[in-house]
Amino acid sequence: MFIALCSAKGAPGVTTSGLALALSWPQPVVLAELDPAGGDVLAGYGRGEVSAVGLADLELAARRGGMARQLDAQLLLLDAEGQARLLPGLADPASARHVDWDRLAAVLASIEDGAVDVLADCGRLRAEHFPAAVLHRAAAVVVVTGSTLRAVRAAAHAIAELREGDGRPGTLATLVVGPGEPYGEREISEALGVPVIGSLPRDGKAAAVLSDGAPAGRLFAQSVLLRAARTVASRFVESAAAHESRLTPPPTPLSASATAVGGSGVR
Ligand SMILES: Nc1ncnc2c1ncn2[C@@H]1O[C@H](COP(=O)(O)OP(=O)(O)OP(=O)(O)O)[C@@H](O)[C@H]1O
Ligand SMILES: [Mg+2]
User: Fold this and answer.
1) pLDDT in tens, 137-166
2) What's the pLDDT tens digit per position in 228-245?
3) How many CA atoms lie within 13 A of 55 on its CB side?
4) What CATH number is associated with residue 166?
5) DSSP assignment letter at 253
6) In this structure, which residue's CA is closest to atom 2 in ligand 1?
7) Largest Cα–Cα distance in the chain?
8) 25, 196, 231, 251: most buried, per Cβ within 10 A?
9) pLDDT value at 83 more than 60
10) Predicted TM-score (pTM) of this structure
11) Does residue 37 sit within a domain?
12) Domain, as residue range, for 224
């Protein structure tokens, strides 16, 4: 499944949630940092790691016509098993104006083949050079929102905009960060007119590991944030499977595609 994550405004936690979900995903996944304002994961979770690979390089390869072949070489491992991989975002946001989002979206859509999913962090909806083309290719567009009145109101405007915009976005849904401040999932779903795929609780300590590279500590994997992320990630995968089983014949055995996906050219 190809899932686009975005926000209405402010910083509700798209990047942190995307990373928490990618680290908790029950099958191979690529977290693609497509925020035109630049990538944050290497500077945050990666504690300032510098990488020669990523979106900017992929864009360069695209101009030379070899984008799909280049993709694997642009991914970094997020975990020891290689289950979660990262396409690092732009180091220099000024280069966002050169990115052909439509071409990039086509490549990302081509790697999700049932055995590997793609989570794309698209940043804020109204940002300059926002990757709208990615939303049109995604199977699901998830607006990440807080649960305050102003957050939900902003999300409602964003969802209306997505519905009205030219081109058809994928299935719309929302992910709530910090539910109960004061609104809960049911109220938010009713207010927005889209399903809430799940909630991630406020957990400043675990969030700081993901967003700013704070030391993980022994209990990080068992934090309330990571436990909730595992539930939400499983829900995504299950709903995708249920959706697809209605549309397509049963998938071919996993082994053939899994070998290609977990290929050894990946760092
Ligand atoms: N579940 C959470 N609990 C507590 N704090 C959180 C949570 N999720 C995110 N945060 C915090 O909120 C801040 C913003 O998070 P993040 O950078 O992920 O937002 P964003 O929506 O990607 O913002 P931007 O649009 O600027 O990229 C960070 O300090 C992060 O630690
Ligand atoms: Mg972000």
Assistant:
1) 999 999 999 999 999 999 999 999 999 876
2) 999 999 999 988 777 665
3) 37
4) 3.40.50.300
5) P
6) 202
7) 51
8) 25
9) yes
10) 0.90
11) yes
12) 2-248
